[in-house]
Amino acid sequence: MMANNKITEEKAEILKKLYNEHKDIMYVEAKRILNDYSLAEDAVHQAFMKIIDKLEKIKGGDVKFTSGFLIIIVRHVAYDMYNKRKKSNAKLEYMENVYSENDENFLTNKTPCDEVIYKESREKLLQAIDKLAPIYRDVLILEKVYKYPQKEIAELLNVSLDAVKKRAERAKKYLLEELRREEIV
Predict the structure, then answer these.
(1) What's the 3-state SS for 97-118?
(2) What is the pLDDT of residues 94-113, one digit of tens each?
(3) Which entry of 18, 30, 88, 155 is 20 to 30 Å from 71 by CA?
(4) What is residue 35's DSSP assignment?
């Protein structure tokens, strides 16, 4: 038998596979909450530590179910980390270069003024998305960022297709209202 603090080779392989398949989507969720690259990485690693004992429930499951499960776990880990930092009165760092490598192409041959306007607009958009209630924000992110069809989002969240449609509609409405309030659109 093995010691309590060790995992089997089989579990290690399953964890490695899950990590390689889902780390990016988990990282994005943790980064959205924590606004810090290194803390987001820590949240992803802590989330995997939490699921070690739950591997038998997810190792042969549906990829989208597994992804949703892992996102929920990392979200809770990230919120716990955020709340601990908030309670200790630690300053949260402001968002850093929000745009991704794909956005770099947009900035090619643009003036410094264009770049500043683009970064500020993107930051305000992300802040407006963060203000949405989680049930609306999750549907919006799954649909627009991860490109899930609404039917699959309904299955993933275990709600009706009509509920997903209504949440997506409300998310867009609330987001537009917030952007108008901020005078972005």
Answers:
(1) CCCCHHHHHHHCCCCHHHHHHH
(2) 333 333 444 454 445 566 66
(3) 88
(4) -
User: How many CB atoms are closer than 10 A to CB 19?
Assistant: 15
Q: How distant, in Å, are the alpha carbons of 58, 95, 161, 176 from that of 69?
A: 9, 26, 19, 29
Q: Residue 32: helix, strand or coil by DSSP? A: helix
- Taking alpha carbons only, the member of 23, 103, 91, 15 closest to residue 51 is 15
The pLDDT-based confidence of 169 (bands split at 50, 70, 90) is very high
Read off the DSSP letter of residue 158: T
| Angle 51-24-155 from CA coordinates, rounded to 5° | 70
Backbone φ and ψ for 73, nearest 5 degrees, come out as: -65, -50
Domains defined for the chain, CATH in brackets? 9-87 (1.10.1740), 101-181 (1.10.10.10)
For 37, the enclosing helix (H) or strand (E) is helix 37-51
> Rounded distance, CA 76 to CA 74, Å?
5
Q: What is the mean pLDDT of residues 102-126?
A: 64
Here the tokens at position 53 are: 């004992």
